[in-house]
């Protein structure tokens, strides 16, 4: 897929300095630019690369004035970084703009399909599924019975969506995610044998949610596991049954959330965080990476550690953690001196 400088300038409402007819077909970092690539310059630390890069087109800020000759065609915009992000989004939309139903797919006769569906090969749509408009379902996706999927949602290859799941509009679910598998519910008998507790609830995912690759969201035992509007989940996250995550919360990779925990709105949770079950975590909470949370957390707190405690307290304490052997030796010496004085 090729774009000319004129086309790119039109998308970005930019001004061209150089050859308006040159074409690019790939993107690159400015220090790795080569012929046929498009790059950008926004950080002043990288200015020297603009005179060295082999990139065919570079997006720069309007106030950039070259100090010497540049071979690269420039497109000048108000904010080069923002413009490049806009271009990436446009490129992604064009690249992923697929439609139609490929061969070797199965759609139940009882399913309801909206307009402009893309359905990749070897995908299965079960009974009574309801799919909105402009939905893209990539190859090898399985959608169980009674699932609802809203408009403009994209589901990448290898995703499994179990029965009764509800997914809103403008969602993105990345490869290998599993939505609606059974919660981890087992009841021990007096003999120590574990019997499975039926998981008959579902998963509800509201609008504008992103779910990373290989993330799993378990169905509720009763009721719903709920992911509220605007939540962003990284790769390889485990969300257990009956968990609720408040709107616009973001969670980094390898975090595990145990059953029935409620997380508030606008929280930021780092990677490899572990959260035990049946807790309430307030709004606007920030959790540093590798934190273990074993008790409720109030609104607006910033926490770190295992078990977690206040972020500033953790940093103060860490100074002493590193000196523990030295402090213990000092204490032992003082204890000996005190005993000697007492004698």
Automatic annotation (TrEMBL):
UniProt superkingdom: Bacteria
Pathway involvement of the protein, from the record: Bacterial outer membrane biogenesis; LPS lipid A biosynthesis
GO molecular function annotation: UDP-3-O-[(3R)-3-hydroxyacyl]-glucosamine N-acyltransferase activity
Entries under PROSITE patterns matching the protein: HEXAPEP_TRANSFERASES (PS00101)
Ranges where the UDP-3-O-[3-hydroxymyristoyl] glucosamine N-acyltransferase non-repeat region domain occurs: 21-89
Residues annotated as catalytic: 241 (proton acceptor)
InterPro entries per record: Hexapep (IPR001451), Hexapep_transf_CS (IPR018357), LpxD (IPR007691), Trimer_LpxA-like_sf (IPR011004), UDP_GlcNAc_AcTrfase_non-rep (IPR020573)
EC code: 2.3.1.191
TM regions (residue ranges): none
Reaction(s) this enzyme catalyzes, per UniProt: a UDP-3-O-[(3R)-3-hydroxyacyl]-alpha-D-glucosamine + a (3R)-hydroxyacyl-[ACP] = a UDP-2-N,3-O-bis[(3R)-3-hydroxyacyl]-alpha-D-glucosamine + holo-[ACP] + H(+)
Keywords for the protein's UniProt record, in alphabetical order: Acyltransferase, Lipid A biosynthesis, Lipid biosynthesis, Lipid metabolism, Repeat, Transferase
Cited CDD domains: LbH_LpxD
Description of how the protein assembles with itself and partners: Homotrimer.
Family: Belongs to the transferase hexapeptide repeat family. LpxD subfamily.
PANTHER family, alphabetized: UDP-3-O-ACYLGLUCOSAMINE N-ACYLTRANSFERASE, UDP-3-O-ACYLGLUCOSAMINE N-ACYLTRANSFERASE 1, MITOCHONDRIAL-RELATED
Function description: Catalyzes the N-acylation of UDP-3-O-acylglucosamine using 3-hydroxyacyl-ACP as the acyl donor. Is involved in the biosynthesis of lipid A, a phosphorylated glycolipid that anchors the lipopolysaccharide to the outer membrane of the cell.
UniProt protein name: UDP-3-O-acylglucosamine N-acyltransferase
């Amino acid at each position: 897929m090729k774009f000319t400088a004129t086309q790119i300038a039109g998308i970005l409402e930019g001004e061209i300095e150089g050859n308006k007819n040159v074409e690019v077909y790939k993107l690159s970092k400015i220090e790795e630019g080569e012929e046929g690539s498009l790059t950008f310059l926004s950080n002043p630390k990288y200015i020297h690369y603009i005179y060295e890069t082999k990139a065919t087109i570079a997006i720069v800020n309007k106030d950039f004035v070259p100090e010497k000759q540049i071979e690269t065609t420039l497109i000048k915009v108000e904010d080069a970084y923002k413009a490049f992000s806009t271009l990436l989004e446009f490129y992604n939309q064009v690249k992923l703009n697929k439609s139609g139903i490929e061969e070797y797919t199965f759609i139940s006769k009882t399913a309801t399909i909206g307009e402009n569906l893309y359905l990749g090969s070897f995908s299965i749509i079960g009974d009574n599924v309801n799919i909105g408009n402009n939905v893209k379902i990539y190859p090898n996706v399985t959608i169980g019975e009674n699932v609802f999927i809203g408009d403009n949602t994209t589901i990448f290859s290898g995703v499994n969506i179990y029965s009764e799941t509800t997914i809103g509009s403008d969602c993105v679910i990345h490869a290998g995610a599993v939505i609606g598998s059974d919660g981890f519910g087992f009841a021990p008998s007096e003999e120590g044998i574990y019997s499975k507790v039926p998981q008959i609830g579902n998963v509800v995912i509201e609008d504008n949610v992103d779910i990373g690759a290989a993330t799993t969201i378990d169905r509720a035992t009763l009721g719903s596991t709920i992911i509220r509007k605007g939540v962003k989940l990284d790769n390889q996250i485990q969300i257990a049954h009956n968990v609720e995550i408040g709107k616009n919360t973001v969670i980094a990779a390898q975090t595990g959330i145990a059953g029935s925990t409620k997380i508030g709105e606008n929280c930021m949770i780092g990677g490899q965080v572990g959260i035990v079950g049946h807790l309430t975590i307030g709004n606007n909470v920030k959790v540093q990476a590798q934190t273990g949370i074993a008790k409720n957390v109030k609104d607006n707190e910033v926490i770190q550690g295992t078990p977690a405690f206040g972020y500033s307290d953790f940093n103060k304490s860490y100074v002493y953690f590193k000196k523990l052997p030295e402090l213990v030796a000092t204490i032992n010496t003082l204890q000996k001196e005190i005993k000697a004085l007492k004698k």
